Amino acid sequence: MISLDISGSRGKLYGYKGINGVPDAIFRHLVKPKYIVGELKGRRLNPKAKIRGYEYAQIMLYIGILKKKYWLSSVEGRLVYKDSVKHIYFERNLFNEIIRMKPAALTVINRLQ
Q1: 16 touches 98 (CB < 8 A)
Q2: Which superkingdom is the protein from (predicted)?
Q3: What is the dihedral of CA 65, 69, 75, 77, to 10 degrees?
Q4: Separation CA 56–CA 11 (nearest Å)
Q5: Which end of the chain, C or N, has fewer beta carbons within 10 A?
């Protein structure tokens, strides 16, 4: 484990192009060039429920940021719910779209202040 942001621990801040975040957990394989980003969710994901859009975007952002940092490595995500674990794989186009949304998001945030 290279970073943990649960149970009072302070995780490591990761960023790319001014977008920053602290994943709940990051694991590195001891031998292979592989990382797993974990986000813990406090709810159940029953069969009728879906992964929420912001949850998916958050884990995709963390996967993409780590992919940029450890570009020769494999990076995957895990959304961990009370009753299940969802494996999330990198989608380059979605990551790039999230990065492109930063200026619009800042405009909205600045209007609210």
Answers
A1: no
A2: Bacteria
A3: -30
A4: 20
A5: C
Please give the model's pTM, rounded to 2 decimal places: 0.87
Go through 33-53 and write b for each residue having 16 or more CB atoms within 10 A of its CB, e for each that does not: eebbbbbebeeebeeeeeeee
Cα(64)–Cα(25) distance, integer angstroms:
15
What is the CATH topology of the domain spanning 3-112?
Trna Endonuclease; Chain: A, domain 1 (3.40.1350)
pLDDT in tens, 35-93: 999 999 999 998 887 899 999 999 999 999 999 999 999 999 999 999 999 999 999 99
| Rounded CA separation 26/86 (Å) | 15
Dihedral sign (CA 49, 50, 53, 59): positive
Domain chopping of the chain, boundaries: 3-112
